[in-house]
Amino acid sequence: MNQCQFLLSPIGHIKTPFKQKFAIPRQPNLAKAKGQVVLAPEFNDPRVFKGLEVFSHVWLLFVFHENIDKGWKPTVKAPRLGGNATLGVFASRSTHRPNGIGMSAVKNLGYEAINDELILHVEGVDLLDGTPIIDIKPYLPYADAPPHASDSMAELNHAAPIPNLEVTINPLVQNMLNEAASQHPDLPTLLTAVLAQDPRPAYRHKLLSDEKTYHTALYNYDFAFTVKNSVVEVIGINTL
Prior knowledge:
The chain is mainly beta. It is built from four helices and twelve strands. It starts with 11 loop residues before the first strand and ends with a strand.
């Protein structure tokens, strides 16, 4: 069979609170992070979204643009299996793929034109800020959620459950977080949701107390946190 090569051009990019790959939820809708898909000028025509309002969710197809240059391997470490066991790349949703294409089902919050830009608002994003979007498709429950679909990895208890750690905020940080929330009202809730899922590397989840201090960037803020006795404590906040 002859192999063909295809040239894909982004139809736009997405703006999200996630300024670095670390701590981004591993799947969409694990945190109610909001994003804005900004279409490229050549697609800036409201007719491209005609009828989209009847769909509650959409698929975003995108490019793992910060991983493509790292290439791919036939097997990848699987966070769901503790971060050390491996799966075949096509049995995973790893970012290290032959073509670097990802997909996320997100909530459709509607579109609008702002300053000559056509923007689609979405919720439940798990994408790095600035990620190139290559397509948008409506989510069809009758086709995309087959009633008898199964995930035996979870059913057989091979997969680790999604962490749900307690998150505490140092009082000094809380005051600054309250100020930051005046600009980003969803920031406190988003911070808690992201950290509760234990964004540390999966192989460190077994450490109930961790000597390291970790950092994650949301919007224009850097948060420092530690994990002690399975409790995440936010101990610092700085403006990026």
